[in-house]
Amino acid sequence: FRGPSKVSAAGGELTEIAKPDSSKGESDYLGPLASPDGNSIVFTRWLGDPRSANLATIPIDGGEVVPLGVKGIRPLAVIDRTLVYVQEDGGVRALRLDRAHRHAEGKPVPVLDPVNVIAGNNGNSGIYVSRAGALVTSRGGTKSQLAWLGKDGSAAVIASESRRYSTPRLSPDGTRIAVTVTEAGKSAVWIYDMSSRTFSQL
Prior knowledge:
Layout: E1 5-6, E2 15-16, E3 28-34, E4 40-46, E5 54-59, E6 66-71, E7 74-79, E8 82-86, E9 92-97, E10 104-112, E11 117-118, E12 124-125, E13 127-129, E14 135-137, E15 144-149, E16 155-163, E17 165-170, E18 176-183, E19 186-193, E20 198-201
C-alpha cells in the first residue's frame, strides 16, 4: 500500500483507506495522523518533492480526500481542533480545523522557530508533540564516532574522527560502511573502507 490503511483492534486483514492519484501527481500518502475523535486522518500528499508536499484529510472509513490548502511535510499532532505540522523549510505551524477535523479554518500561525529537516528522508524532522500538547525537539547537532558494538555492550571505535554520522549500513562482504555525513547543513553519503581505513564521499 502507498496510502494509509487500517486494521481491526481484534486483528485481521489490512484495509486500505485511500490510495494516491497518479493523475494528480501524487506518489504517496505519508505520515497519517488520527483526529482526536478517531473519525478522520490528516496526512501528507507526497508529490515527489518536499517543496510541493501538502496536507490533506480523509474520513477513517474512506471517502473524499480534502486538501487543507497548506504546504507541509509532516503532521505532528491534532489537539482539540488545532493541527500542528512541519513545513519543508522546517517552520512549525498550527492550523485551526473545523469540528469534523476535515477542513481548514483561518490561516496557519507560527508555533516554533525552524527545526532541522532531513530532506533525504521524506522531510522527517526531530520534533514530536504529545496528545496533551507538550513539544520536544533538539537544537544544533551532535557529533559521534563509528564503532562496533559487541553483544556484551562493549564498543570498539572504527574511525576516530568525530562527525555528524547517521544511518550507517554495512556492505554484504563486511569490508565497507556507507554512512550519511551532515556538514554545514548539507548531507552526503560517505564510504568508509575498513581495510585501508579511508573515507571517501560517494
